[in-house]
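Title: Prediction job returns without error message
Component: structure pipeline
Severity: low
Priority: P3
Assignee: unassigned

Description:
Job completed but the reporter wants confirmation the result is attached to the right record. Sequence as submitted:
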Amino acid sequence: MTAAEDRLARIAYLLAECPPPDMAAGSGRCAHGPWPCVITQAVWLAQGCDRGQVRAAYQAAEREERLPHWEAEAAAGAG
């Protein structure tokens, strides 16, 4: 294992990804901000996921996120 790989393995061990929020309940955030937060993305990269995998996971989370209730109500009223 190279020194760079060893550092990444240590970072991945020390950090823990945030669990996905309850998107069905309208929560798209973890303690650090919108999920997946930068901590979660850093862990995924340190674990060996490439940027494409991280981007795909982020886009999937965005697709599943519901509109805030005020936007959903406005959209329902307009329709």
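Comment from assignee: result matches the submitted record. The beta strands are 29-30, 33-34.
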